[in-house]
From TrEMBL:
The gene is LOC108813797. It holds the Pfam family LRRNT_2. InterPro entries: Leu-rich_rpt (IPR001611), LRR_dom_sf (IPR032675), LRR_N_plant-typ (IPR013210). Residues 1-23 form the signal peptide. It is found in: Cell envelope. The keyword Transmembrane does not apply. Transmembrane segments: none annotated. This is Leucine-rich repeat protein FLOR 1. Residues 26-64 form the Leucine-rich repeat-containing N-terminal plant-type domain. It comes from the Eukaryota. Its main location: other.
Length: 325
């Protein structure tokens, strides 16, 4: 019985030193109030009352077991920059700042503390500057959406080091340069690539030909050279949009996956005869206009169901739905 007092002291020390879920939850609440303050207490966050339960009554906040796991602030009059305190919400799985046209600055480095983050959407804001390399430190992110912003500079090659990334949406920015060579060596899953409506240029790395992309959209850029590496008879690709570039390759030599349902190659310098393979696809969207294609459009399949405009302004295409050969 002599040891009981010592055991009592030991258990007291352990109890004091172990972090409680209550204190962690309190830290989340403090971080949220700091975020509200950094955003100048906007009306959109008027429900963020310190006297109420942030997990059940605060707009845009979702919790699991008392911890903030999702923060969505969108479609409101928010001005300023993304508060650095978002990095203090250590259990976040979803971070969404979208449709905030007065949100400026760049992505804060503190975001790298969010080791469980699965979805990062910073869409249609006024964020600018280069996409920071440290985004690649978010190893749990499966969906990265930085579309409709003012980002400039090159695509960070380090994005290829995000092992769980399933979709990369960086379209509708002002990005320059080409697709990084490192995109030929993704460390994990092969993400859908949505790079359209930027100022990207140059040739697409040939190393991307080994990948079986589900969806690729490079439209509205200045890419040159061969774009046929995204195709292959044994691939399972569903959607490809290479329109409004300067791609130049022989369409007759391309082998198409039977899985393709959407194909847009319009406004390029693609040449050659029209491949019969295209008549075997179950296409929902199709456009090869404004190219250098020639020859007869094969009958059969769904090709004749598309408007003449989908085939127009080529070198010498003929046959239904265009004029007879």
């Amino acid at each position: 019985m002599k040891f009981l007092p010592h055991l009592s002291v030991l258990f007291s020390i352990l109890f004091i030193s172990l972090p409680s879920s209550h204190s962690s939850s309190s830290n989340d609440k403090i971080a949220l109030l700091e975020i509200k303050k950094a955003l100048n207490n906007p009306p959109l966050l008027s429900s963020w009352n310190p006297q109420t339960d942030f997990c059940t009554t605060w707009t845009g906040v979702e919790c699991t077991n008392g911890r903030v796991t999702a923060l969505t602030i969108s479609s409101g009059e928010i001005s300023g920059q993304i508060p650095v305190q978002v990095g203090d919400l250590l259990e976040l799985r979803t971070l969404d700042f979208s449709y905030l046209t007065h949100l400026t600055g760049n992505i804060p480095h503190t975001i790298t503390k969010l080791k469980y983050l699965d979805l990062l959407r910073l869409k249609e804001t006024n964020l600018s500057g280069s996409i920071p390399d440290f985004v690649s430190e978010l190893k749990s992110v499966t969906f990265l959406d930085l579309s409709f912003n003012q980002f400039t500079g090159p695509i960070p090659g380090s994005i290829s080091q995000m092992p769980k990334l399933g979709a990369l949406q960086i379209n509708d920015n002002k990005l320059t340069g080409s697709i990084p060579d490192s995109f030929g060596s993704f460390v994990g899953t092969v993400p859908n690539l949505y790079l359209f409506n930027n100022k990207l240029s140059g040739k697409v790395p040939e190393s991307l030909s080994k990948y079986d992309f589900n969806a690729v959209d490079l439209s509205g850029n200045g890419f040159t050279g061969d774009g046929s590496m995204f195709f292959g008879r044994n691939k399972t690709t569903i959607r490809v949009n290479l329109s409004r570039n300067m791609f130049e390759f022989d369409l007759a030599k391309v082998k198409f996956a039977r899985s393709i349902v959407s194909l847009d190659l319009s406004h390029n310098k693609i040449f050659g005869k029209f491949p019969r393979e295209l008549s075997k696809l179950r296409l929902e969207h199709f456009d090869v206009s404004y190219n250098h294609l020639c020859g007869k459009i094969p009958r059969g399949g769904l090709l004749q169901t598309f408007e003449p405009s989908a085939f127009s302004h080529n070198l010498c295409l003929c046959g239904t739905p265009l004029k007879a050969c």
